[in-house]
Task: inverse folding
């Protein structure tokens, strides 16, 4: 029994030089936030030890902090025994975990890159910044391709100088995300980190496919979208054979928007559907079950779709939607945005006489 229990744990030991009798904080990465697991007091020589539960096939990202400053980054698998030797100036070595050493190497490379970018930005040297960015991107790609089954790839894929400057920000980077995701799924199909990466990969692939479809499309009246309905069947706008399509972005969690369905859209649909109106309603709910329940309960007769990505849906970006509800009319080679109920009624009356 003791041997079996040992396999479901990982052990950390080490020394933080110059820190005697002080608390070290152990934090766990929960996809995109830190959870504080515990605090560990160092000995008179700076030594410390800690043991945590780690499930089979579900490694954990663990970070050690002193005075709110991270000094070690670890990827722990069940049964790991890791040794950390560090100081408060930033030096750190890890033994017993190759993935942990890869993680720390990639973090140092990114920190050096970010520091150089700041200096070049202050100097106003845009050419050097562009060159350095491309160089770091290529090094990241080499790192990822060279370690296809390492969980250390995940933080690398999410590197970003700021919210507008991700290292992997090109549409085609979806292919790199897919390669990493598929490789990691073979080893860690139950990992919460890999599952989150799968979701991000799917989002990026949708964006990539949309861009390709727009590039390859012949002259069209409007950008095409293909999203799943409440039964999981994909429906494309291009499949809708109607004189006028009302593209309606909404959120079923909002009571006012649900009332708008019943008090405004349903009567308009009944009045103009036979004259050539179809509604293509895109829900931005992330809870697809709740959305589907609303569609069924309200007996909405038009096309209802939802990809579950909420505001991150490619459809939002494609049609430049900044808030919901948002309604526009597609037809006759143009896209007409409608800002209020009166404007909607006026446009329908003019176009579907």
Result:
């Amino acid at each position: 029994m003791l041997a079996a229990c040992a396999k479901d744990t990982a052990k950390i030991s080490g020394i933080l030089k110059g820190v005697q009798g002080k608390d070290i904080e152990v934090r766990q990465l929960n996809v995109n936030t830190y959870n504080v697991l515990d605090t560990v007091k160092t000995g008179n020589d700076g030594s410390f030890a800690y043991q945590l539960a780690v499930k089979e096939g579900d490694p954990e990202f663990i970070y050690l902090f002193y005075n709110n400053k991270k000094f070690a980054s670890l990827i722990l698998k069940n049964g790991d025994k890791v040794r950390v030797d560090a100081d408060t100036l930033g030096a750190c070595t890890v033994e017993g975990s190759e993935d942990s050493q890869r993680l720390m190497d990639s973090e140092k490379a990114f920190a050096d890159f970010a520091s150089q970018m700041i200096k070049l930005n202050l100097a106003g040297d845009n050419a050097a910044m562009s060159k350095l960015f491309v160089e770091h991107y290529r090094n990241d790609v080499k790192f990822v391709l060279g370690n296809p089954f390492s969980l250390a790839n995940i933080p690398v894929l999410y590197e970003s100088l700021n919210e507008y400057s991700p290292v992997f920000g090109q549409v085609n980077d979806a292919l790199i995300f897919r390669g990493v995701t598929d490789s990691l799924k073979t080893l860690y199909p139950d990992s919460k980190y890999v599952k989150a990466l799968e979701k991000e990969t799917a989002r990026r692939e949708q964006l990539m496919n949309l861009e390709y479809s727009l590039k390859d499309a012949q002259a069209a009246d409007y950008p095409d979208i293909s999203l799943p309905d409440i039964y999981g069947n994909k429906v494309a706008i291009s499949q809708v054979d109607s004189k006028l399509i009302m593209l309606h972005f909404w959120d079923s969690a909002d009571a006012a928007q649900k009332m708008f369905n019943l008090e405004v859209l349903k009567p308009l649909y009944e009045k103009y559907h036979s004259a050539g109106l179809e509604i293509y309603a895109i829900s931005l709910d992330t809870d697809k079950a709740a959305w589907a329940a609303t569609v069924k309960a309200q007996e909405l007769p038009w096309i209802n779709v939802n990809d579950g990505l909420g505001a991150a849906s490619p459809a939002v970006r494609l049609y430049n939607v900044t808030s919901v509800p948002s309604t526009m009319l597609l037809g006759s080679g143009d896209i007409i945005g409608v800002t209020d109920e009166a404007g909607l009624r006026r446009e329908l009356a003019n176009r579907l006489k």
